[in-house]
Amino acid sequence: MTFFLIVTLNGLTLAALYFLAASGFTLIFGLMRTVNMAHGALLLLGGYVGFEVAKTTGIWPLAILGGGLAAALVGAIIQFGILGRFQGDELRQTLASIALSIIMADLMLWFWGGITYQVAMPDALAGGFRLPLLGVGYATIRLVLIAFAIVVGIALWLVIAKTRLGAIIRAGVDDREMLRALGFDVAKIFVVVFALGGLLAGMAGVVAASALSISPGTDLQFLLSSLVVVIVGGMGSVGGAALGALLIGLAEQYGLAYAPTYGVVFTFAIMVLVLAVRPQGLLGRSEA
């Protein structure tokens, strides 16, 4: 039973990490219908920048903010300069963002090299926490990661569902021409949304580099997981992203613990099953 509960906690930690990565993706891909295959590269960039900030200042929250802002800036430039020109043309967006992802990955490989980096954490987070019911220790950063994901999820839901900006974003997705007729600059709004998605991706990169590590290839890993999470949970749904991340995170950890040979099969089996039963995702809205 102790082993099962530890595996479950590991699954929740992985789910929190996947949600942080997918939360920005669900904004860009789910709400804007922009196919940004450079999302993983933004996450990796945020992790690298966060590492440099933490090494220079020694302040972990500042590293999270710095990594997020760097990814937000690059994301806004990508949307304004390239992807925004192909709005509504998914094929060109996909090809352009794949090219950007490869270019960014190569530039980061050239600058930071092919070694693995881990962001230094405060002493309060570097140790372990003794779980009262299980009587075993567990990494404090993993528990903080779960709490951080919950806070981000609530804040993102409030922005989308309860604020004027969220209403404008949702209106722009549903009827862009009507929003433009009302005097709103849809292109600028989408740049802001892209920057917000980049901010979340960059912050997720720093947190991932703190709890685990980052290296070349981390961008592809989290891009794939974000795609699966958004597809399973439903495009444009923050709750769906949380549910999808929970299912995928737990499935991966249970698979690694109890059926390591077939662990990866569970993830894609869930995705295939969801697509067969609910093509729009578990909490996604039907296009009909």
Automatic annotation (TrEMBL):
GO BP, sorted A to Z: amino acid transport
Pfam families assigned: BPD_transp_2 (PF02653)
Name used for this protein in its record: Branched-chain amino acid ABC transporter permease
Localization per record: Cell membrane
GO cellular component: plasma membrane
Transmembrane segments: 6-28, 59-83, 95-115, 135-160, 186-214, 220-248, 255-277
Assigned protein family: Belongs to the binding-protein-dependent transport system permease family. LivHM subfamily.
Topology within the bilayer: Multi-pass membrane protein
GO molecular function: transmembrane transporter activity
Record's keyword terms, sorted: Amino-acid transport, Cell membrane, Membrane, Transmembrane, Transmembrane helix, Transport
